[in-house]
């Protein structure tokens, strides 16, 4: 039976659609502008003549970036840190969340309180730096995947999922049939927890891909720097060259060319750094929304 819409309903729906379309355009425009600016003439971008579609198309910014071997090395390192770090995050988070969700876990409340304390108090940058250096992780790629291998917020979300989604009767029935705790976790609980595993994988992967501060503090060797650090150094180098030319006096032509290249490289770097996550997001959006709902409603 089809419900007949009143004039008030039609007005309400139309208003909602208009508002949502405006919000969509406001969200998409900055992204589209950056993509267009990365392949447009920098002079037209700076003068405000390029507002939507690319003008005087040139891929010089992308060519400059990919001629630099450090960019490709940074990409490989970031993929390595993202995959390795996500796997470690998943193992630690899911296992800790499951243990804290069990009512028969001895000392569960004590460990939960100890974990919660770390959400509000940290050791600070200098003690953390000294600890990292003393255990041999300074300037090592392992620091990118081990430091911050878990998040208490994610553990709480995971624990809540296990408590509210996995029926206790299922676990009890498996134990009555002689299932050990490890087998119960691997063969009963995990197959029923694909949603929370996907959510935690998404959260961890995005965090590792955008990881910047850890590498800035603890990584000095060029061969282990992630993409975010390499892109920052590339941008700073192009701007530094422009400043040197500016101080040269009679090199106005070179200065103008360097400034134009730096401007185009800036937009191209943003596209390169954001593209993998933006390409992945549409496929995992439903898990992302589900994870946010789990944390906000039941956390």
TrEMBL record:
Belongs to the binding-protein-dependent transport system permease family. GO terms for biological process: transmembrane transport. It comes from Paenibacillus lutimineralis. Keywords: Cell membrane, Membrane, Transmembrane, Transmembrane helix, Transport. One of its GO terms (cellular component) is plasma membrane. It is a multi-pass membrane protein. This is Carbohydrate ABC transporter permease. Pfam families: BPD_transp_1. The keyword Transport applies. The chain crosses the membrane at residues 12-35, 79-98, 110-130, 142-162, 182-206, 265-284. Residues 75-278 form the ABC transmembrane type-1 domain. It is found in: Cell membrane.
């Amino acid at each position: 039976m089809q419900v007949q819409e009143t004039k008030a309903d039609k007005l309400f729906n139309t208003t909602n659609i208009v508002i949502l379309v405006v919000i969509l355009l406001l969200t998409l425009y900055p992204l589209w502008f950056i993509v267009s600016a990365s392949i447009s003439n920098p002079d037209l971008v700076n003068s405000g003549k390029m507002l939507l579609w690319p003008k005087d198309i040139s891929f010089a910014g992308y060519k400059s970036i990919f001629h630099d071997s450090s960019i490709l090395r940074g990409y490989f390192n970031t993929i390595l840190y993202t995959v390795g770090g996500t796997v470690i995050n998943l193992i630690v988070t899911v296992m800790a969340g499951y243990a804290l969700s069990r009512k028969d876990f001895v000392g569960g409340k004590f460990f939960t309180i100890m974990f919660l304390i770390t959400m509000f108090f940290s050791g600070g940058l200098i003690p953390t730096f000294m600890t990292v250096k003393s255990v041999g992780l300074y300037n090592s790629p392992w620091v990118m995947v081990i430091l911050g291998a878990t998040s208490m917020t994610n553990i709480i979300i995971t624990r809540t999922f296990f408590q509210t989604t996995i029926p206790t009767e299922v676990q009890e029935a498996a134990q009555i049939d002689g299932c050990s705790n490890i087998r119960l976790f691997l063969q009963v609980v995990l197959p029923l927890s694909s949603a929370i595993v996907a959510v935690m994988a998404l959260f961890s992967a995005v965090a590792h891909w955008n990881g910047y501060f850890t590498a800035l503090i603890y990584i000095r060797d060029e061969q282990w720097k992630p993409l975010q650090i390499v892109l920052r150094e590339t941008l700073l180098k192009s701007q530094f060259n422009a400043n040197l030319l500016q101080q040269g006096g009679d090199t106005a032509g070179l200065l103008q060319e360097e400034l134009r290249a730096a401007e185009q490289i800036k937009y191209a770097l943003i596209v390169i750094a954001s593209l993998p996550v933006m390409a992945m997001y549409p496929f995992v959006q439903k898990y992302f929304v589900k994870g946010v709902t789990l944390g906000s409603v039941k956390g």
